[in-house]
């Protein structure tokens, strides 16, 4: 092998390492920010919006942000939940409990959530319920805690009817690439068992179909590959990098570069798709 070829291989490997290190750093930073937001909200009983605003001022230094919050008497306080929304929360909470939900949970759960979706005219099989849960930053599947419910006030929702009127705009907001990425990455954490680092394939596939349908020509091929060929849980790295693949690689794969630092599962999917003639 010639020295020039060895140099090229060395360069590609070093580039891959740099990309991987940068990705790890980005993930660690993101996780620390999420932890800071959660801790800030637990201490101050504020919304995610207010927590993020204060933490950004102090580069996510929790103590400084909390001190500033308690010393601040400005207009950054969360909006108060309306009486109608307080009553709605109790209504849907009781429906959930009556239909088999956990009576110890102070939340809208299970059938209570389904009743809310029915009342605001939302199909539970479409993407809108997931968008709603994302806007509230819900952490548990099919569950809106009393704290998360208060986010509706900051979103300008003082009644269930207002939620219905806001949803179309929230959906349009996903036309922005950065906003969609935030939503897409939220879904991974929402779908993930909090004790696990990955999502079982049988859980990941329905979410892939729901959020990428219409955005990626080969989404059904990807899901079929995951279910029947790869058969492995989906990691956060694979989840994130697949969105980059969808955004940056043409559906006919003409600009696909196998020397880029794609996860192995994506490289193997491309080979699988080529064998099928999927262009």
Structure in words:
Neddylation of cullins play an essential role in the regulation of SCF-type complexes activity. Residues 80-274 form the DCUN1 domain. Helix 1 (3-44) runs parallel beside helix 3, helix 10 packs antiparallel against helix 11 and helix 11 (201-212) packs antiparallel against helix 12. The protein has 279 residues and is mainly α. Strands 1-2 form a two-stranded antiparallel ribbon. A two-stranded antiparallel sheet has the order 3-4. The chain has helices at residues 3-44, 48-57, 62-71, 83-98, 111-119, 128-135, 146-149, 151-154, 160-173, 177-191, 201-212, 219-230, 236-248, 264-276; strands spanning 107-109, 143-145, 198-199, 234-235. Residues 5-9 and 15-19 have low confidence and may be disordered. The two termini are 34 Å apart. The protein folds into 3 domains: 3-71, Helicase, Ruva Protein, domain 3; 83-172, EF-hand (Recoverin, domain 1), CATH 1.10.238.10; 177-276, Cullin, PONY binding domain (Recoverin, domain 1, Orthogonal Bundle), CATH 1.10.238.
């Amino acid at each position: 092998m010639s020295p020039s070829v060895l140099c090229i291989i060395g360069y590609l490997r070093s580039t891959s390492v740099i990309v991987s290190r940068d990705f790890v750093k980005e993930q660690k930073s993101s996780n620390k920010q999420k932890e800071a937001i959660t801790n800030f909200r637990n201490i101050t009983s504020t919304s995610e919006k207010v927590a993020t605003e204060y933490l950004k001022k102090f580069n996510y230094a929790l103590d400084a942000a909390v001190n500033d919050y308690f010393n601040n008497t400005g207009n950054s306080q969360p909006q108060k939940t309306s009486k109608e929304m307080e009553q709605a929360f109790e209504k849907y909470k009781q429906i959930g409990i009556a239909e088999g939900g956990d009576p110890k949970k102070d939340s809208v759960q299970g059938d209570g959530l389904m009743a809310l979706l029915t009342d605001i005219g939302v199909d539970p099989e479409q993407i809108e319920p997931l968008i709603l849960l994302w806007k509230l930053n819900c952490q548990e599947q099919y569950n809106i805690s009393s704290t998360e419910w208060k986010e509706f006030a900051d979103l300008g929702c003082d009644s269930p009817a207002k939620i219905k009127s806001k949803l179309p705009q929230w959906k349009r907001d996903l036309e922005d690439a950065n906003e969609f990425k935030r939503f897409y990455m939220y879904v991974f954490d929402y779908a993930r068992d909090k004790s696990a680092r990955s999502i079982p394939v049988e859980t990941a596939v329905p979410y892939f179909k729901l959020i990428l349908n219409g955005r990626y020509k080969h989404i059904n091929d990807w899901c079929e590959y995951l279910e029947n060929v790869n058969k492995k849980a989906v990691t956060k790295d694979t989840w994130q990098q697949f969105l980059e693949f969808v955004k940056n690689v043409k559906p006919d794969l003409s600009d696909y570069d196998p020397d880029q630092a794609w996860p192995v599962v994506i490289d193997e999917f491309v080979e699988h798709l080529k064998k099928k003639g999927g262009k």
